[in-house]
Amino acid sequence: MAHFTYDLFADKSDLLNPMGTVEKNPNVDSAAGLLIRFPNIRPHPLYYPPLDKISGDMEKNGDATIATKEEYMKLKEIMDNKNSTEFFEDEKELLWKLRTEVRDHFHESLSKLLLITKWNRHEDVVQVPTESFRR
Questions:
Q1: Do 18 and 79 fall into the same domain?
Q2: Are 126 and 68 within one domain?
Q3: Which residue, 9, 63, 71, 126, could crosslink 67 as a Cys pair with Cβ 3.0–4.6 Å?
Q4: For residue 99, which of 52, 66, 61, 123 has the smallest C-alpha distance?
Q5: Could you list the residue ranges that cross the membrane (predicted)?
Q6: Which domain holds residue 77?
Q7: C-alpha gyration radius of the chain
Q8: How far apart are CA 86 and CA 22, in angstroms?
Q9: Maximum C-alpha span of the chain
Q10: In this structure, are 83 and 27 located in the same domain?
Q11: Do 94 and 69 fall within a single domain?
Q12: Beta bridge partners of 53
């Protein structure tokens, strides 16, 4: 079982930051303390599935899509606009739908995928093509 002790500040006038602090109270002798115990739930670390399994599952589920000629032209137009960092909703949807095309053919624009990723949805975060960012 893991034990963590956090020494609390005695009164609000001691706080430099009224929203809270990220450091423990240095005066540990006279401060109240908070002891938190976390049980060891699992003996080994938890890992995401391997990337080859994720990409294989995407192909089985049909998530890896092939662009139509019109979609590819629109994608190329978005990628050619180097200074654009703001996208309309339909452009975001197209970029997300064709994220594997961006990964495979537009390496210089991978940052645009990071801009349109919905970071609060773990399903989307898992599907960001991380293997292309390691190249």
A1: no
A2: yes
A3: 71
A4: 66
A5: none
A6: 51-133
A7: 24
A8: 34
A9: 71
A10: no
A11: yes
A12: none
Joined tokens for residue 115:
């801009």
The mean pLDDT of the chain is 72
Q: For residue 85, what are its two tokens?
A: 């960092």
Residue 39, SS3?
Answer: coil
SS3 breakdown of the chain: % helix, strand, coil, rounded to 5? 45, 10, 45
Of the CA atoms within 13 Å of residue 19, those in its CB half-sphere come to: 1
Tell me which residue has tokens 């662009």: 67
| CA-closest candidate to residue 123, choices 94, 87, 96 | 96
**81 lies in a domain?**
yes
DSSP state of 12: G
CA 107, CA 129: separation in Å to the nearest integer? 11
Cα gap 39→35, rounded to integer Å: 13
Tokens describing residue 75 = 């994608």
CA distances from 135 to 40, 53, 67, 114 (A): 37, 19, 24, 16
Q: Rounded distance, CA 125 to CA 114, Å?
A: 10
How do residues 66-92 score in pLDDT, each as one tens digit?
A: 788 999 999 999 888 877 778 889 998
The structure's pTM equals 0.48
E strand map for the chain: 2-7, 33-38
